[in-house]
Amino acid sequence: MLIRSAVKAGTIFYVGKGTGKRVASHESATRATMKSHKYMWLKHKHKVILEIQDAGYDVVQEIVGRTDDELRAYETESYYITQVGLQNLTNSTYGYRPKTKRSPRHR
Q: CA-to-CA distance for 39 and 62, rounded, in angstroms?
C-alpha cells in the first residue's frame, strides 16, 4: 500500500491510498475520458489535472508513505486529508474506513 498526494503548483490537491501502479491512474483516466469525448464523466480532480496540463505543467505525485498494513494506510490517508482540509482538496470524503469484522452473536 502507498499513500500519495498530487500537487498543483506546490499545493496538494488530492490524497489517496493506492496500490501498485494506481499512483498514475487518475491521469490515465483523464486522458481516456478526454479521448472518448465523455466529458460528463470528468470529476473535479480530473478537471484540476487538465488545468495543470493545459498550463504546461506536469502533475507531481509524491509517495508519502508505504505500508503493508491496509488499516494503517487508510488511517494515514485520512490523517493527510484532515491536515490539508477536505475543502482544499479534490477528494470527496475524508477517506475510506473499512468495516470492522463482527463476530456472530452467540445466544
A: 27
